[in-house]
């Protein structure tokens, strides 16, 4: 008997009626981790007391635990129970009463089985939660096509009461219920069966009951919804069916389709070339304007422009960056020369890689033609402005020269009278020493006055001649900047004398510039005259300062500054625009500063910048090289 107990996988204890332990096998000692000689000859109560003292039954009064365990063992109630040990293992305890009034108790370690059961229960719960939380309805049909498993979403989408589904109906029965209640509509194009439910049911199930392979189809519901149904046959003849409400998706697809149609209409209505190409430059889309420009079945002919486009497309693909607007020219499908303002933009996929290149080209042919015409008009206006400036200079110089010439004429007349008087005295032999001395004094004074005024007139004429020739010819030559500024200001002196504005210079002598003095003279004249017109009120005193310094690397910085009213912030950005003026009704053309900018950036190969604000005067900064290269003629061809 003892040998048999030792061979068992279970722990066994045999107790007689007076609770004396008759036998305990080794596996029982092993289950509780105790030695075989534990409590030899002890009672069952002693064994329980020992285990309770070691925490086997958890916290509590030891004697109360012993009394409870002994009482339940005597009554074998319950006959089957599970006991979780402090180390986490689970023991299955079975108690059977013996005929003698004692009992036999077996202990089986079911820890692994419980773990497996718990894992299985967890997986089942996870599966249940997964099915219930799916956005799709899902059902499992057995080989007889009876509904065995389903989730709540399936009931909702199919419109089947749960009471019907609990009866494990067949697919045929569910379909009949749906057809009979109007929950299921026949697909578009189906024959007309009237109220014949069986005919409708047969039509539906003929090809959808047992497909040979996975099958997906969409069907309308009686409530206006659309379901996508996926049928997956199983090896045992059963099926898994999923039901997805695709109503919103169909609505969204229709909205996308309409949006595409609208977008296509918008793109076709845009008066610009639009083409979309893939990474390999295959055309995916062109708009109507593109088709009309290069013919419906054609594309731009290969050539330099196409080679440039291909290179730019590769740049967009490789860099992921767009190409800013640039101008290009080419022939359209009719062979006409066209000018385009073109930009390129990348389209990227979800990974950020460039998938397409979008090219947009605006037709600027008319604008370029208008710009060319405007340049011609502007050149004519600039020439007229220059001639008008020369005319004003001629008038001013003529007025200025008139004074010394008038003085000279008066002096010569007076000298002539004195000569006639002395001749008469000499002829009549009445000349006296005092008369001759008086004549000599008058002759000396008159000669000195004539010489002074002739030199003054000659200087004015020479200055006018040099500035006028420079402005008329626009030729390049070397000139001393300080001396030339003085000559320009001398030519402006008649205009300045009618005002209370003074001009001061701070330019070191010997600063020689190899450039276009006529162009520079017009810039300087325009700045000064512009100040006289706009910076000061009539009769208002003012001060203009012109200074220049040589910079390293062969550049000259010249500063113009006046203390006039300044230029309001609202129009500062427009002062260099052609034809912009705030005194158009007073004879101003609006070309003064525009001409200055054209000359400085073109002929003088430099720049002009303005700094101004109300009440703090106006300042211009001019920069140009000491030696102008590569420029011939004046004015420049472009504004």
Give a topology summary:
Layout: H1 2-7, E1 11-15, E2 21-24, H2 26-32, H3 44-53, H4 62-75, E3 80-84, E4 90-97, E5 103-109, H5 111-133, E6 137-141, E7 147-150, H6 152-158, H7 162-166, H8 171-180, H9 197-208, E8 215-220, E9 226-233, E10 239-245, H10 247-269, E11 272-278, E12 283-286, H11 288-294, H12 304-319, E13 323-331, E14 337-348, E15 354-363, H13 365-427, H14 433-473, E16 477-480, H15 481-497, E17 500-507, E18 512-515, H16 517-534, E19 541-551, E20 555-562, H17 592-603, E21 607-612, E22 618-625
Parallel strand pairs: 17-19
Antiparallel strand pairs: 1-2, 1-5, 3-4, 4-5, 6-7, 6-10, 8-9, 9-10, 11-12, 11-15, 13-14, 14-15, 16-18, 19-20, 20-22, 21-22
Rg measurement, Å:
56 Å
Uncertain residue ranges: 297-304, 631-639
Mean pLDDT: 82
Stated plainly, the CATH topology of the largest domain is called Heat Shock Protein 90
CATH class of the largest domain: Alpha Beta
CATH superfamily of the largest domain, by name, is Histidine kinase-like ATPase, C-terminal domain
Percentage of residues in DSSP E strands: 15-25%
Largest sheet: 5 strands, antiparallel
Secondary-structure class: alpha+beta
Catalytic activity: ATP + protein L-histidine = ADP + protein N-phospho-L-histidine
Protein name: histidine kinase
Keywords: Phosphoprotein
Domain PAC: 321-376
């Amino acid at each position: 008997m003892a040998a048999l107990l030792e061979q068992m996988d279970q722990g066994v204890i045999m107790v007689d009626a007076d609770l004396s332990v008759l036998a305990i096998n080794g596996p029982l000692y092993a289950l509780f981790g105790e030695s075989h000689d534990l409590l030899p000859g002890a009672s069952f109560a002693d064994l329980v007391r020992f285990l309770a003292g070691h925490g086997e039954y958890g916290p509590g009064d030891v004697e109360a635990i012993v009394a409870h365990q002994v009482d339940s063992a005597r009554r074998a109630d319950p006959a089957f129970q599970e006991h979780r040990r402090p180390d986490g293992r689970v023991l299955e305890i079975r108690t059977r009463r013996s005929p003698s009034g004692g009992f036999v108790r077996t202990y089986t370690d079911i820890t692994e089985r419980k773990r497996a059961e718990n894992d299985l229960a967890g997986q089942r719960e996870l599966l249940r939660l997964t099915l219930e939380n799916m956005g799709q309805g899902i059902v499992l049909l057995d080989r007889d096509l009876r509904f065995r498993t389903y989730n709540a979403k399936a009931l909702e989408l199919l419109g089947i009461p749960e009471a019907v589904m609990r009866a494990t109906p067949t697919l045929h029965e569910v379909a009949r219920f749906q057809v009979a209640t109007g929950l299921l509509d026949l697909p578009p194009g189906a024959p007309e069966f009237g109220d014949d439910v069986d005919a409708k049911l047969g039509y539906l199930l003929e090809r959808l009951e047992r497909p040979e392979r996975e099958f997906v189809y969409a069907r309308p519901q009686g409530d206006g919804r659309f379901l996508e149904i996926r049928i997956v046959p199983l090896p045992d003849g059963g099926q898994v069916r999923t039901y997805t409400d695709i109503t919103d998706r169909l609505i969204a697809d229709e909205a996308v389709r309409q949006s595409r149609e609208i977008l296509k209409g918008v793109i076709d209505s845009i008066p610009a070339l639009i083409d979309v190409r893939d990474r390999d430059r295959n055309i995916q889309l062109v708009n109507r304007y593109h088709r009309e420009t290069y013919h419906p079945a054609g594309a731009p002919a290969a050539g330099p422009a196409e080679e440039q486009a291909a290179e730019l497309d590769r740049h967009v693909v490789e860099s992921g960056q767009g190409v800013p607007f640039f101008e290009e020219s080419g022939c359209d499908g009719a062979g006409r020369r066209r000018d385009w303002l073109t930009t390129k933009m990348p389209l990227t996929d979800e990974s950020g890689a460039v998938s397409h290149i979008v090219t947009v080209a605006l037709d600027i042919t008319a604008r370029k033609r208008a710009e060319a015409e405007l340049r011609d008009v502007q050149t004519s206006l600039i020439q007229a402005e220059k001639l008008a400036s020369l005319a004003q200079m001629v008038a001013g110089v003529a007025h200025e020269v008139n004074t010394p010439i008038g003085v000279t004429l008066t002096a010569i007349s007076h000298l002539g009278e004195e000569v006639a008087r002395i001749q008469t005295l000499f002829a009549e032999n009445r000349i006296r020493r005092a008369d001759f001395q008086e004549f000599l004094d008058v002759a000396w004074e008159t000669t000195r006055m004539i010489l002074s005024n002739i030199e003054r007139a000659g200087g004015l004429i020479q200055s006018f001649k040099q500035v006028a020739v420079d402005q008329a010819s626009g030729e390049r030559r070397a000139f001393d900047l300080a001396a030339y500024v003085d000559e320009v200001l001398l030519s402006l002196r008649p205009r300045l004398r009618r005002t209370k504005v003074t001009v001061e210079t701070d330019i070191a002598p010997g600063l020689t510039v190899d450039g276009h003095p006529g162009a520079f003279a017009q810039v300087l004249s325009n700045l000064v005259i512009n100040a006289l017109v706009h910076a000061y009120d009539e009769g208002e005193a003012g001060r203009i300062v012109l200074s220049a310094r040589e910079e390293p690397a062969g550049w000259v910085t010249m500063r113009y500054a006046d203390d006039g009213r300044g230029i309001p912030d609202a129009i500062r950005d427009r002062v260099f625009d052609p034809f912009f003026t705030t005194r158009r009704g007073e004879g101003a053309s609006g070309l003064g500063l525009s001409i200055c900018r054209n000359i400085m950036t073109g002929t003088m190969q430099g720049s002009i910048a303005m700094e101004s604000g109300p009440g703090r005067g106006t300042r211009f900064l001019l920069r140009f090289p000491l030696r102008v290269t590569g420029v011939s003629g004046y004015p420049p061809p472009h504004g």
